[in-house]
Amino acid sequence: MMAEDIQHNQKANFNGLTKSAKSGASKKLTIKNFKDRPELTDSYTEDTWIKLRDAVSAIQNSTSIKYNLEELYQAVENLCSYKVSPVLYKQLRQVCEDHIQAQIHQFREYPSSSLDSLSFLKRMNRCWQDHCSQTIMIRSIFLFLDRTYILQNSLLPSIWDTGLELFRTHIVSDGAVQSRTVEGILEQIECERNGETVDRSLLRSLLGMLSDLQVYKDSFEQRFLTETNRLYAAEGQRLMQERDVPEYLHHVSRRLEEENDRVISYLDQSTQKPLIATVEKQLLGEHMNAILQKGLWMLLDENRVCELTLLYELLSKVKGGLMTLLQAWRDYIKVHYVDSKLRAGNKEATEEELERILDKIMIIFRFIHGKDVFEAFYKKDLAKRLLVGKSASVDAEKSMLSKLKHECGAAFTSKLEGMFKDMELSKDIMIQFKQVCYMQNQSDPSNIELTVNILTMGYWPSYTPMDVHLPAEMVKLQEVFKIFYLGKHSGRKLQWQPTLGHAVLKTEFKEGKKELQVSLFQTLVLLMFNECDEYSVEEIRTATGIEDGELKRTLQSLACGKARVLNKMPRGKDVEDADRFHFNSDFTHKLFRIKINQIQMKETVEEQVSTTERVFQDRQYQIDAALVRIMKMRKTLSHNLLVSELYNQLKFPVKPADLKKRIESLIDRDYMERDKENPNQYHYVA
């Protein structure tokens, strides 16, 4: 029925053309000098219109054309030569418009189920492809009209452009059709981003259609970039929590490659710049500081050149990325570089080469203004190396200490030297203790062998005490050692530090016997599985007494790391309160003694902040002491002279605002007072 209506309209239009031609010409027109050109009679004109109408209709309905194409072309040329081009163009446009208008119904009436979105896109693409091929064929017939009359009238669009205009106006600009087309394309792209295979040629064709129709930016690109921003914002937040930094960096690199490939495959080239900028902003720019805080030091410590290269390449794409990376790298060199060279496992240098590296380090050290910050972090790292046996060379450690002493004086290294002295004394004490235990038979050598390091509180970094529930055997040995030690050193007080403890556990798996080198917290958790096969997080927390954050990190190291001696249900990288754990008897490893990563002994952001805050607090005390010394000696000073004297005495950089705060603090505590007549002058208060 629809086809009949179209043909009826076409016939009416061509009849209209005939009448128009008649009104502007006599009954019989002839063109002299063209012997083979037919005369423009009523019958000829009518027959010509019918031929052209039938040919266009056949093309639009994909049926065979009854007439020879050359004959049709000649007919158009004849009509144009008889000066009826304006009417011919107008009526051709009307025929095309009627046909395109009829196509919209198949899309408006299409089922709205999400399952039909792909078939909807395929139908739209088929309609577009048919339209293009039909327009090309129609243009080939009406080529003479296109190259003469239309070309000479700059306000008239070509036959091809007319076809685009009509398709845009009646198909793609329809609100419901455009919305469904764009949403379907976005849905396919999201599926591809989620790892599914999609028909890229279909997407390329449809997006090419939107571009050709000049609606790509307004109808698609803005929606696409908004959805991209939403997707990667959520993905960045989630993966920064779930993955470690190396995994995250490789994921970001892969995502950028995928999006660039998407541009090459089916997106318009103009979309590349805003698309890549969106991905970089959400996956890198929004998490730049977190990436560096969470992973840079670890990558540098482990000499992960591949990931460091990738980190540099990715951050170089983000505004301010390289400057932020440079600052973090500068902080690492100030704090943690010496530790990486003096730690066990450093295979980069022989002892002679290491000595040369330390000499170069001292050159850099001379340019550091805040040497107290270096001292604080150096002391903390030295403590870890000594307590967990990670020092590469005692000789190298003492050589570095000697260089620091020569550079900064004995006061700078006195506490560091005290740490070495404690370790040497602890060895002697343990020899004596084992001899006494052996003589008194107070310990069973086949059960637990205890080693204790006695640390002088003033020498070592401060550690937060934590009470945990030790097994009865450990408690008994602690008491035995306490009685032994206090018997030799009356008046002293022992405070146990479980956060620094470690142990070697003999374990039996299906594969055979293994030894696990673990922290004390890991030890307490693993010993529970001698009694039962499965525990909840709450049951483990109650039994061990480990603080919640430490417990979750400990369980994570045992069940989510490389050496998974526990199985976690449900699986995942984060430990939640509802998780349950059971012993992994199927655990296998090529080594007999396996060191399980001690997460609580790793550098953490909190630890860095805590150390920095302690340095800042110490600086305040030093500033106060220097202010009091200067004022006690000078009695009265102007603000500028006092600040100048202060800068000469302090060995670390201080902001003027911080100095002003310390001066106000001393005034409040009655160490000094401001002159009543001149507020910029101070007096010492005896």
From TrEMBL:
Which organism encodes this protein? Cyprinus carpio (Common carp)
The alphabetized UniProt keywords are:
Biological rhythms, Host-virus interaction, Isopeptide bond, Ubl conjugation
The name under which this protein is listed is Cullin-4A
Similarity-based family: Belongs to the cullin family.
The protein's annotated pathway: Protein modification; protein ubiquitination
Instruction: Read off the lineage from the record.
Output: Eukaryota, Metazoa, Chordata, Craniata, Vertebrata
Q: Locate the Cullin family profile domain: which residues?
A: 337-559
Provide any one GO MF term from the record: ubiquitin protein ligase binding
Recorded GO cellular component terms are: cullin-RING ubiquitin ligase complex
- Pfam families tied to this protein: Cullin, Cullin_AB, Cullin_Nedd8
Q: Which SMART domains match?
A: CULLIN, Cullin_Nedd8
Q: Which GO terms describe its biological process?
A: cellular response to UV; DNA damage response; proteasome-mediated ubiquitin-dependent protein catabolic process; protein ubiquitination; regulation of protein metabolic process; rhythmic process
